[in-house]
Amino acid sequence: MGKKHIMLTFDMLDWDADGEIGFEEFYLMVCILLSSEHDVEETFISHHFLPVFELLDMDGSKTINLKEFKAAGFLFNLKGSDFKKILNLFDITGDENYRDRF
């Protein structure tokens, strides 16, 4: 991971913007790295969609669009058509956004 991805990851994990990553954020990152190492990213995203949603919703709009998903795709080792495939699983409105329903 290069400096750009490290800084983006830190910003995404620093949910309360206090300049620190707490245990919950650290634990989520470890789980993401383990899912990537064992090639189960799609399963991880499906089973832990709420924390992943909160992580990927970088602008706080309560939606995730393809641009946001692609910006963080490196975390899940996603490439090419993987983005649309996974996003389409959760796009119940057909507007290419996944909305927080919780």
Automatic annotation (TrEMBL):
One of its GO terms (molecular function) is calcium ion sensor activity. SUPFAM superfamilies: EF-hand (SSF47473). The keyword Metal-binding applies. PROSITE patterns: EF_HAND_1, EF_HAND_2. One of its GO terms (cellular component) is cytoplasm. InterPro entries: EF-hand-dom_pair, EF_Hand_1_Ca_BS, EF_hand_dom, EFCAB9. The keyword Metal-binding applies. Keywords: Calcium, Metal-binding. GO terms for biological process: flagellated sperm motility. Transmembrane segments: none annotated. Residues 1-36 form the EF-hand domain. It comes from the Eukaryota. This is EF-hand calcium-binding domain-containing 9. It comes from Labeo rohita (Indian major carp). The lineage of its organism: Eukaryota, Metazoa, Chordata, Craniata, Vertebrata.
